[in-house]
């Protein structure tokens, strides 16, 4: 008989800087008398993150969703954009907020990312872009996606919300496509409490993005486009600067926890582990996601999710329901189940297990033991 955890184990817990570190930075902000609108902390963080992510240009935002909305505006996307149904709600919603119709393309059974081989069949005269997501930090097939986009003159935007610090062959993952968005939400490996960024390789695009995130205000006399308020304030920027010192240590802890999950769950029939990436890919180990095949495991994902709660383990069904099942999207032709067979199976099987540096190795072993004891 396994005892429940004494305290709730959530799917994740934010990394916290020390109060002292934050206080010290707050003193700097107080003496500068500058709270938001491109202050010194903001300028320094943009520079530091640009280097960390190995990208040419970076613009900070108050969250990843507004950043992605601005990405669509900055590239003047319209009509239809091909995207994945297996993602967080924000991905298709930014298209809707831009009056763009999301067209859901099925996903790859292994990586759970958009199936690059199926994109071409979804292109119509209205298609302007592909919005792909590096789900759980596993990079998309960036070469194939670019090849299709180039052939049809489409833009490529990556939702890299999960992919902070991910690299392909020593190149930051943000170097692929026209623009990538990173989320710095508190639940991410790296965070600024709330925050995000757009990265890309074009100086003129940076100027346009920076105007769009500040109401389109060019100077005191000129407002040149209908922008929005996407600015990151000085307090969050300062916390972001501190958090950069924590990210690698947190990643290392998660690598170890991933290893334990892999060890403990290897060979458990009906439990599929995270995809294995090419050797030249550097991952961030932000999430640990399994898939439960009810026919083989003998229990459904929903049973496992509920049973875990009896042990005080709060796993999450990221990403169920699929975006194509939302009431606002399910009437789309591309949302039909027969058009998304792989995504619909994954949506029923997927479960994000607890993953954060504050977990102990014993915690992870116990979570695995609880799971294994559920087999039927
Ligand atoms: N694209 C993709 C692919 C995304 O995954 C996201 C965000 C976005 C775009 C949009 O980026 P942002 O606009 O958010 O920058 C969470 C996050 O809020 C969200 O940022 C993230 N994806 C998504 C995958 O996860 P929820 O609604 O599941 O979060 P919540 O509040 O249930 O938190 C999860 C667990 O974390 C809790 O059970 C407990 C723990 N927690 C959470 C918070 C906020 C804490 O212990 N302390 C905390 O302060 O969305």
Describe this structure in words.
The protein is an alpha/beta fold and 376 residues long. It folds into 2 domains: 19-243, 3-Layer(aba) Sandwich (Aspartate Aminotransferase, domain 2), CATH 3.40.640; 246-374, Alpha-Beta Complex (Aspartate Aminotransferase, domain 1). 36% of the residues lie in helices and 15% in strands. The chain is built from 13 helices and 15 strands. Strand 5 (127-133), helix 6 and strand 6 form a beta-alpha-beta unit. Helix 1 crosses helix 8, helix 3 (64-74) packs across helix 7 (203-212) and helix 9 runs parallel beside helix 13. The two termini are 16 Å apart. Ligand T4K binds at residues 10-14, 63-65, 87-88, 90-91, 133, 159, 161-162, 183, 185-187, 196, 314, 318.
Briefly characterize the structure.
A seven-stranded mixed sheet has the order 2-10-9-6-5-3-4, sandwiched between helices. Strands 8-7-12 form a three-stranded antiparallel sheet, with no helix packed on it. The protein is α/β, with parallel strands linked by helices and 376 residues long. The longest helix has 19 residues.
Ligands and ions found: ligand T4K
CATH architecture designation of the largest domain:
3-Layer(aba) Sandwich
| Rg over CA atoms | 21 Å
- Based on CA inertia axes, which overall geometry fits? globular
- Cα-to-Cα separation, first versus last residue: 16 Å
Tell me the total number of β-strands: 15
**Number of helical stretches of at least 4 residues:** 13
- Most strands sheet: 7 strands, mixed
What is the averaged pLDDT score?
97
The helix content is: 25-40%
Unreliable stretches: none
What name goes with the CATH superfamily of the largest domain? Type I PLP-dependent aspartate aminotransferase-like (Major domain)
Helix vs. strand class: alpha/beta
Element string (H = helix, E = strand)? EHHEHEHEHEHEEEEEHHHEEEHHEHEH
Whole-number total of structural domains:
2
